[in-house]
Amino acid sequence: MTMQIELFYLAHSRTGDKGNSQTMSLIPYDERDYALLEKQVTGEAVARQFGRLVRGKVTRYALPKLKAFNFVLEDALQGGVNDSLNLDTHGKSRSAVLLAMTIEVPEDHPAFRLKAAQ
Amino acid sequence: MSLRQTDRIRLGGGSAFFNDRLDAALELVEAGDIDVLMIETLAERTLALLHAAKRAGGSGYWDKLSDRLQVLLPACAKHGTKFVTNGGGAAPEACAAMIARLARENGLAMKVAAVTGDDVTELVRASDPILLETGEPFSKLGTGIISTNAYLGADAIAAAYAAGADVIVTGRVTDSALALGPIMATLGWKADDMDAMACGVLTGHLLECGGQATGGYFAEPGLKDVPDVDRIGFPIAEVRNDRSITITKPPGSGGRIDRHTIVEQILYEMHDPAGYITPDVTLDVTDLDLTETGAQEVRLSGARGHARPDKLKVLVGVDSGVLAEIEISYGGINADKRARLAADIIRKRAARNPMLGNQTIQYDLIGVNSVWPEEGTQPVRDVRLRVAARVPDQRAANELITEVESLYVNGPAGGGGVRFATRPTIRTYTAFVPRADVTPRWTFVGA
Fold first, then answer.
1. Distance CA B86, CA B172 (A)
2. Are residues B230 and B374 in the same domain?
3. Which end of chain A is more exposed for a tag (fewer CB within 10 A), N or C?
4. Which of chain A's residues have a Cβ under 8 Å away from the Cβ of B430?
5. Do residues A57 and A21 lie in contact, with contact meaning Cβ atoms separated by under 8 Å?
6. Is residue B171 located within the same domain as residue B220?
7. Which residues from chain A sit within 8 angstroms of residue B220, using beta carbons?
8. Residues 6+ apart with CB under 8 A from B17
9. Residue B270: which residues within 8 A CB-CB, separation 6 or more?
10. In-domain check, residue B339
11. How many domains does chain B have?
12. Do residues B180 and B62 both lie within one domain?
């Protein structure tokens, strides 16, 4: 059996900006979850998660040795520092959007205990 | 001054931006046993703002630097720590002269060098390159150009360091060059040794954001806690001849160094991890070996370098008017409805105002939809309306401020806490110029 859980309980992320593009890391707390993330947190899935916030291409770079992923979201910052009128001009807080994405994990995954403890 | 070994060099990342914590930088010098303190101060727009300030009669460098140096310079002199900064901004030589004067006044024997050559205004005017953002030549930009600076690499910094400079002041260089220069000079690494350059660039990349490598910008209460997060120690990188980097922080400081914090910083603002482009080398981090070698210690090796680009990136800063941001709060039952009504009032009145009618105005409800894309279903009791616009000048900004401020007496019930801020904004454009056309220079500067 699998159940849905937010990425938040399995991985952490930091965002950066370059012009109107957003860069975003995704790093599992437990390296053993790398394969799970590789399968489910695809570029397409991340594009869906960001919905109207991202208008350009989403590229995922996998780093199997560092057990991490890097995403580049193009045309994702409403113009970035040049044009955006957003409160968070750089989109620094957008890692929270990625981590709110849900994925399917085995129902006995330790992430559920972590979530229950929060 | 103690004799320094030449098979290793220890560098401290003392600042991620111009207003970063001074106590953490001082701790690096006093307790970090570092050879070099690196102070990064120039975000993309900061340099353009300094150029604008210089044109208006200012120094052209960051004025607060002298206050910080009053603290840091004596400590650096005492510990034999070299000081490398891009805080020279639009006037590296004037900044270096200020530092030399400060050293003399404090009775410190320090040789101060300035690195110049990043100001490529003449070159860009003459060669008129195509801009990345517009696809049109530079000359089409017309008026309002504030600054035109190339991102220099590490070569002039390395040369000044090798010549014995105690303080090196630059304008625009890549942040990582502030570390790579001293590393090249100390370890004898050459620019054509691409894996060595990659190791140095990665070192700079890990240090350039200060505490972001050591547990800053990381804490998630209960999930990823950071010990003593109120006094995070800034990062120290020990780079050795075997091309390894060991990241630590001052003993006893707060913060966290492990696989999680270091990988977050490695990937920070990176696009393709196999092709991170700098003027010195194209860095590839996909083959890195990362080992947690101790509590609060990570060792990295295996940085790969690919050929550096033939062209240097140039950032053009152009005046883009004034950003005005004004906020007003509403509380209690229906707080969000009153905030939305307030936005609607501004929208209608701005449309009738000749100075605001053509402007794009953004309305955010802080607490509802400002940094989170989905509005929740729970009632909110504390909402702040934010009105933001980029307008041509201060007069137009004042019009918008007046509109929001007058909600005090003419808007929905119970609005309070109006605050406003305006600041000049700068638009940046990107161009590329042949490396051979740009000449980085360095020189010793006296008081």
1. 7
2. no
3. N
4. 19
5. no
6. yes
7. 12
8. B40, B41, B43, B46
9. A16, A23, A70, B276, B285
10. yes
11. 2
12. yes
